[in-house]
Amino acid sequence: MNPEELRHQLPVVADLAGPAHLATETLVREVRRRRRTRYAVMGTAAVVAVVVTLFGAARWHDDPTRPVGAAGSPTTGPSGTPSARATGGYVCGERLDLPGETSSRDGLGLAVRSVRGADSATGPRVEVTISADRRLTAVSTPPQYIEVLYLRDGVVVGGGPMLNRPGDVDTPQGVDMVGHPLDLAPGQPVTQQLGPRDQLCPSWDWPRVWAAPGDFEVVALLPQPVETPATRPATVEPRLLVARAPFPR
Amino acid sequence: MAGWERLLAELVESRGSELNRYGFLLSGDRSEAADLVQEALVRVFARPRRSWELADIERYVRRTMLNRFLDIHRRRQRYALLAPRLAESSVSTDHSGAITERLELLSALGSLSPRQRACVVLRYYEDLPVASVADRLDCSEGTVKRHLSDALVRLAAALQTAHRDPEQGVGA
Hints:
The structure holds 2 protein chains of 2 kinds. Chain A has 4 helices and 11 strands. By secondary structure, chain A is an alpha+beta fold. In chain A, the strands form 3 sheets. A 4-stranded antiparallel β-sheet of chain A has the order 1-2-3-8, with no helix packed on it. In chain A, strands 6-5-9-11 form a 4-stranded antiparallel β-sheet, with no helix packed on it. The radius of gyration of chain A is 23 Å and the shape is elongated. By secondary structure, chain B is an all-alpha fold. Chain B has 2 domains: 1-86, Orthogonal Bundle (Rna Polymerase Sigma Factor, Chain: A), CATH 1.10.1740; 97-166, Winged helix-like DNA-binding domain superfamily/Winged helix DNA-binding domain (Arc Repressor Mutant, subunit A). Chain B is 73% helix and 0% strand. The relative contact order of chain B is 0.11. Chain A: Residues 63-88 are annotated as: Disordered. Chain A: Keywords: Membrane, Transmembrane, Transmembrane helix. Chain A: The chain crosses the membrane at residues 39-58. Chain B: Pfam families: Sigma70_r2 (PF04542), Sigma70_r4_2 (PF08281).
């Protein structure tokens, strides 16, 4: 048997399949059922994430040792606790210390794909990629809520969506932890465009930043996506994936 | 009716038969083909997507059918080591000329490993280039070529045997 004979005969063999008996109504019902199940799983993960965020924020808020300084000037006091960092207490002028910082964990990875300047009056456009070493579905953070910080000498000078003004330790931080489904496979990272992040701390403006872009760094911080169905119990301490990149010159 | 429901109905209406034929060539069994198609449709439509283009969706469905076929047979191979065969295929035998030839080829396809069979269907039925077959099966082009070569040898041997001894029957 040669390939041409096969090409000719396979469609004839396929005729043995007979008519397709596909009941659309039954399919629609089953799709609806699975969607409900899927949303329930994602909703549960989102609720867990909100609880964890609030719990962590409360802990951070009660921590009297957290450092606060003026925008652009590094603080010399003790740095924030890992839990404070992991839950996102981001204040202008504060040094960003991330003990145990990593860009990959449990087979999931975060990387800054590109940082592009639009114009001298606005912030850069940031793209990140989320990758996995295996095929999986995970609940992640919507791109617009992935935290981005701009640092100068390790000190926060801008970013968002969570960013408090210098000295503002009272305003709680948080974002709507709406589940954002991700289908990941090895070698096929998912790219997320994070949208504009133009907020700068009061003592800075974009022309000044773009005048010396080599002095600045972009940091993306993503709560580790939750694999569904869960392969491990949820941890009380949220864990961050952190990726850094220089400003474009 | 939601957009995805209309698209599902349209896909079933316009491409259901072709998906069924594809599933049948992969599995060699009518009920398994129907299961492959239905499960793939449900899985693909159960996941919200940004864009719903008919051609894209059909491609997802075919890919899902292929992955499910390979998964099922991977599990079945393990199970086959422990359990005797419980049931035969539902394809009935008919010994009239043309039908017999088709059944012989169907039976010969059954002698291939699932990955060899997938390679044959993708390459010679779907008419995909070797590189695309390798991409679908997540393996190298060399592996695909080896599977195709081995498959042709096996098919030739199986068909020769069938012709030599037609009394043996050709049940799938």
